[in-house]
Every structure is written in structure tokens, then in C-alpha cells.
């Protein structure tokens, strides 16, 4: 059986928060000190990390569990698919929907984990979290649990932004839906569908024909600097669209409806997918684009800067390669790796701007299935920080 590690931070307090960003040596607006994208911090949360005293999970998980034995006694802290910076040394990180599909994830509780990376010790501490629930019966169809705690059989949550009032907007892939939760994780409104886009899970429930394939809903969710608009980026192409083109839809949070403005992002290959999208300012986004490889087969793991102003008038977001995650300079040999660092994970689904020259990137370890770092071993959740050779000139409201 794989080693199970339970990590929490009860009472660790200010010490971890004080060192959490050590290694980045930066403040907002600082000038770059490197000539190429460079690794400045590395930390890792062990694959076998569980929420203590929670509930059993993984009863239907099958396949290569890489030494772990299911079911697990508690809920795993795993599969990070979205991240929010709390600007106090902690981050709210969205766990994925469970064990790969709707049918085997009914005992996986949807949860926002609160984490604190400590780069001085190369560790990540779990400092809290909250389960997502629907106590006010905003969801009109039957949920998995009578107590209305949401599970991976109800929604596939993949992206997150935090509003100025502390509420959360979360992007789902089973609808796809936008979900609005309060600060305690309670659903505030009925799930908001995207007109003309129907995932197979919704098609099976409603009888409306599917227009996209499974797990191709809102993989990226970005907030405008003011918080008025959020932008949902689909992971997959909608039926009838040009192959490899992904829709980016604008949503008005004040009116709680889509504005009708739609943009298009072109993948480098139809075999690729996006992993996350976050705003840099009112017009630009950071977008993770990746292939499906891991370990030796991982080739395309990239961060692009995408601009919706479409200056070449081709109808697509303008793209500029910002970071090749398979080719990061590592002069300090952080994490025990060599002078060139690679991030060879199948799914990389989290990027967050730390300041105008530094980013953090996290992988989704698909616990316990992915094995990109060491063949035959379940991947940990790795957390890296990167210094850029040029300033982003990000909107200051996004850096607070």
C-alpha cells in the first residue's frame, strides 16, 4: 500500500506564512533579474495527503492506483484544478471532481482547500478548507446525497475566481455551468448554463443533444480587474466550430448573465488542451496549453499570453509564448533537479500571478493515476514559482 501522509497546519500560524513566498525575492513592480524564465521556488504536497476525520472515498476507483489501496479512509487532498491568491500567504485551491468520471466519483466531496506553500522547506501545508454544498436547493435535479453536499458525480469543478465580496465563481464541465458559492461554500443561485453548449452528462439527464465531448467545459475562468466580468474558456471545441478553436465567453457578474461577447482561442494542435486561464488586465490572459503526455512523452506544456484585441484581425486571440514549462532555467538546482527544470505532468491546471514578474504554477496529479515525475509512482502535487525576464505590466487591481 502506498504511504499515506496526512498534512495539516493546526497552529503553525505565522511562521509558515512568513516563509511561504521565500525564494521569490520579489515585490509587485520589481524589475526582472533573469534573462530567461527561471525557477525560483519548488514545493510539493505528497500524493497520499488526506483530509483528517473526513469520509471514506474511492470505493469505485479502479485501474493502476500506483501502490495505493482503495477505498481510502478519508478524502484525498488532490487534483488541483484552479487557484486563488488570498494575498496573506495562503491560497484557495480547487480540488478536481474525483477519480476521472461521473460514474466513479460519487464519494468524492467537492472541496476548496486552503494551502500555504513553504518554499524554504519545499513543503505545502493544508491550513483549512470547505466543502461545496447546496442547502437551499438551488439545483433543480436530484443530487447524489440527501444532505446536499456536492460530489464528483454532481459537478466537475475545474476553474475558480474569488469575487471582491469573498464569494466564489466556479466553472463546471458537466453542464457546462457557472456556479456561484458564498464564502462558506453554499450555492447561491441555480447553475447557470452556457447557451448552445451541452456536455454529455447534461445530455444524458435532459435529453438535449450534446454539442461537446465529456470533460471539455469550463477549464479556465478569469476575472476582469474590476470583477464586473468573468471569462469562461472551454477546454474543447464545440460541434460545428473549427477544430482546435475554443470559445471564451464573457459573463456579467452584476447582471448574472452572458453579455453575448465571445472570443476564440486557437490551440497549437487539435490534440492539445488548455489547463487554466487567468486575467492579466482587461484585454490579456495567461493560458496554459498542454499535450496529453507525461514523463518522457510530455512535450508541450506551455504558458501563452493571449490578447482579445485581435490586432491581426484573424478572429482569434493573439498568442505569444511566455513560458515553456519543459525548459525552465534552474541555476540553484531547486528541488534536487538539474540546471534545466521540466514540469512533465499530464495535466497542469493552475497558474496565478504573484507579482509583475513572478508566477506560480501547479499540476493536477489526478490522484492516484498520473505518474509523470517518477514512472510507477503516483504524482505529488508540485508547486513552482517562476521569474519572468520581462514585466507583465499587469493591472494593479489583480495584484492586490
TrEMBL record:
Print the keywords alphabetically.
Answer: Signal
What residue range is the signal peptide?
A: 1-27
Q: Which residues form a coiled coil?
A: none
Per its UniProt record, what InterPro entries does this chain match?
A: Phytase-like_dom
Q: Does the keyword Nucleus apply?
A: no
Give a single Pfam family match.
Answer: Phytase-like
Tell me where in this chain the Phytase-like domain is found: 75-367
**What domain of life does the native source organism fall in?**
Bacteria
What protein is this chain from?
Answer: Phytase-like domain-containing protein
Organism expressing this protein natively:
Actinoplanes octamycinicus
Query: Source taxonomy lineage?
Result: Bacteria, Bacillati, Actinomycetota, Actinomycetes, Micromonosporales
Amino acid at each position: 500500500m502506498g504511504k499515506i501522509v496526512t498534512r495539516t497546519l493546526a497552529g503553525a500560524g505565522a511562521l509558515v506564512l512568513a516563509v511561504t513566498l521565500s525564494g521569490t525575492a520579489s515585490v509587485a513592480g520589481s524589475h526582472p533579474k533573469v534573462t530567461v524564465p527561471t525557477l525560483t521556488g519548488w514545493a510539493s504536497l505528497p500524493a497520499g495527503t488526506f483530509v483528517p476525520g473526513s469520509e471514506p472515498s474511492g470505493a469505485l476507483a479502479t485501474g493502476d492506483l500506483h501502490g495505493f489501496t482503495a477505498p481510502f479512509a478519508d478524502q484525498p487532498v488532490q487534483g488541483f484544478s484552479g487557484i486563488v491568491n488570498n494575498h496573506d500567504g495562503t491560497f484557495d485551491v480547487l480540488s478536481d471532481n474525483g477519480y476521472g468520471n461521473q460514474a466513479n466519483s460519487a464519494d468524492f466531496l467537492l472541496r476548496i482547500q486552503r494551502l500555504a506553500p513553504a518554499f524554504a522547506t519545499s513543503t505545502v501545508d493544508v491550513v483549512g478548507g470547505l466543502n461545496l454544498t447546496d442547502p437551499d436547493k438551488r439545483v433543480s435535479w436530484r443530487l447524489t446525497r440527501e444532505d446536499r453536499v456536492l460530489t464528483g458525480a454532481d459537478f466537475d469543478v475545474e476553474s475558480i475566481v474569488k469575487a471582491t465580496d469573498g464569494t466564489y465563481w466556479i466553472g463546471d464541465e458537466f453542464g457546462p455551468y457557472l456556479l456561484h458559492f458564498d464564502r462558506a461554500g453554499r450555492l447561491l443561485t441555480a447553475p447557470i448554463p452556457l447557451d448552445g453548449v451541452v456536455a454529455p452528462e447534461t445530455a444524458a439527464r435532459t435529453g438535449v443533444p450534446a454539442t461537446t465531448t465529456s470533460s471539455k467545459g469550463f477549464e479556465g475562468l478569469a476575472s476582469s480587474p474590476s470583477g464586473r466580468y468573468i471569462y469562461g474558456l472551454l477546454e474543447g471545441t464545440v460541434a460545428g466550430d473549427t477544430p482546435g478553436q475554443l470559445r471564451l465567453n464573457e459573463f456579467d457578474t452584476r447582471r448574472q448573465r452572458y453579455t453575448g461577447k465571445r472570443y476564440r482561442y486557437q490551440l497549437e494542435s487539435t490534440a492539445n488542451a488548455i489547463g487554466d486561464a487567468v486575467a492579466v488586465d482587461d484585454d490579456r490572459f495567461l493560458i496554459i496549453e498542454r499535450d496529453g503526455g507525461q514523463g518522457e512523452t510530455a512535450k508541450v506544456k506551455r504558458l501563452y499570453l493571449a490578447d482579445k484585441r485581435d490586432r491581426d484581425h484573424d478572429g482569434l486571440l493573439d498568442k505569444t509564448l511566455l513560458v515553456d514549462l519543459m525548459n525552465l532555467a534552474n541555476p540553484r538546482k531547486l528541488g534536487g533537479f538539474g540546471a534545466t527544470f521540466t514540469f512533465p505532468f499530464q495535466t497542469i491546471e493552475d497558474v496565478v500571478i504573484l507579482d509583475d514578474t513572478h508566477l506560480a504554477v501547479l499540476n493536477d496529479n489526478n490522484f492516484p493515476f498520473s505518474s509523470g515525475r517518477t514512472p510507477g509512482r503516483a504524482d505529488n502535487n508540485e508547486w513552482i514559482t517562476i521569474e519572468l525576464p520581462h514585466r507583465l505590466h499587469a493591472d494593479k487591481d489583480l495584484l492586490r
